[in-house]
UniProtKB/TrEMBL annotation:
The keyword Acetylation does not apply. It comes from the Bacteria. The lineage of its organism: Bacteria, Bacillati, Actinomycetota, Actinomycetes, Kitasatosporales. It comes from Streptomyces cinnamoneus. Keywords: Signal. Residues 1-35 form the signal peptide. This is VCBS repeat-containing protein. Transmembrane segments: none annotated. PANTHER family: PROPROTEIN CONVERTASE P (PTHR44103:SF1). The keyword Transmembrane helix does not apply.
Length: 285
C-alpha cells in the first residue's frame, strides 16, 4: 500500500498538522475551487486521535481486525475534523483534508514529504460533519460531504490538486442523523454508498447513483438497535474480499467489525468484536 507505516507517513502528516496550526494562527486562505475510472476497493488504515494531540495509525490485518497501533504525530490538538481521500482512486489513501480550529480547511499528503499542504479556505466551522466516502458525483476525483448545523447536506467535488469546486446542495433534513459513514461501494454495483444512523438508532442505507445533482437513491432501512454505538467509521475493505466494511464503537469503548456482504437491504454480516479501549480516542477517521 502507498499509505504505509513509517517515517514518510509520519513526516507528511506531521507537516500537515503544522500547516493546519499555522492557518489557525494567521488566518491564511486560498482560492477554492468525464467518466470516472473504475476505483479499486478502498483499503485505508484507520486513524485515531486523542484530545491531547496524539495521532495513531492502525493498519488492517486482512482478517477484519488491526495490527499494533503506531504513533504518527503528537500535534493534532488544533485539528477539529479529518478525512482521508484516495485522490487517484487506486484504493489507497494518500491525502487528507483537515479542519483547523479557526475553520480553515487544509488539504495535504499523507505519504509524500515533498508535496506541500494547501489551505483550501476558511469558514468550515459552519459544518458539524465533514467526510469523504469516495467518488459520489461520477467525476474523476473523490468528493467531500459537509453537513451544516441546520441539517443541510452539501457535496463538494474536487480538482486533481485537491482544491474544491463550489458546493452543491444535496438537501435538508440530515440533522435527523447522529452519524453518517461509508468508504466505497457497499452493494457491489461499483458506486460509492454510505449509511446513516438516526436519533432513534435506526440505520439507513443510501445507495450512490454517481449523479452530482441526485447522488443518492431513496434510503433503505437496514435495522434498529444501532443507538448502542457512538461512532460509525469505515476504512474500506478490511478483510481483502473486495467489499467495503464498517466499524462501530459502542458506548463502553468496544470496537466492532461489520463485514460487508454486498446486499443493499442488509449490507453487513453479524458483528465481530475487535476489542475494547477505543473510548480513549476523540476521533476515528
Amino acid at each position: 500500500m502507498a499509505l504505509s507505516s513509517g517515517r514518510k507517513h509520519g513526516r507528511a502528516l506531521s507537516r500537515l498538522a503544522v500547516a493546519a496550526i499555522a492557518a489557525a494562527l494567521v488566518g491564511t486562505t486560498a482560492g477554492t475551487a468525464s467518466a470516472a475510472p473504475t476505483a479499486a476497493a478502498p483499503h485505508f488504515p484507520l486513524m485515531a486521535t486523542k484530545a491531547s494531540g496524539e495521532l495513531y495509525e492502525y493498519q488492517p490485518d486482512g482478517r477484519g481486525a488491526f495490527g499494533d497501533r503506531k504513533l504518527v504525530d503528537n500535534e493534532w490538538t488544533d485539528i477539529t475534523a479529518a478525512t482521508q481521500t484516495d485522490q487517484d482512486q487506486n484504493g489507497e489513501a494518500e491525502h487528507v483534508y483537515v479542519r483547523a480550529s479557526d475553520g480553515s480547511l487544509i488539504y495535504g499528503p499523507t505519504v509524500d514529504e515533498q508535496q506541500e499542504a494547501v489551505v483550501i479556505g476558511g469558514g468550515w466551522n459552519i459544518y458539524d460533519r465533514i467526510f469523504s466516502p469516495g467518488n459520489l458525483a461520477g467525476s474523476s476525483e473523490p468528493d467531500l460531504l459537509a453537513r451544516d448545523k441546520s441539517g443541510v447536506l452539501y457535496i463538494y467535488t474536487a480538482r486533481a490538486d485537491g482544491t474544491l469546486y463550489d458546493r452543491y446542495r444535496v438537501g435538508p433534513g440530515w440533522d435527523i442523523y447522529t452519524d453518517i459513514a461509508g468508504r466505497g461501494d457497499l452493494n457491489g454495483d461499483g458506486k460509492t454508498d454510505m449509511v446513516a444512523k438516526d436519533k432513534s438508532g435506526v440505520l439507513w442505507f443510501y445507495k450512490g447513483t454517481g449523479n452530482l445533482h441526485d447522488p443518492f437513491a431513496s434510503r433503505v432501512k437496514v435495522g434498529g438497535g444501532w443507538d448502542i454505538y457512538n461512532t460509525l467509521v469505515s476504512s474500506g475493505d478490511m478483510d481483502n474480499d473486495g467489499r467495503s466494511d464498517m466499524l462501530a464503537r459502542d458506548k463502553s469503548g468496544v470496537l466492532w467489525f461489520y463485514k460487508g456482504n454486498g446486499n443493499q437491504n442488509d449490507p453487513f454480516n453479524n458483528r465481530v468484536r475487535i476489542g475494547g479501549g477505543w473510548d480513549q480516542y476523540n476521533n476515528l477517521f
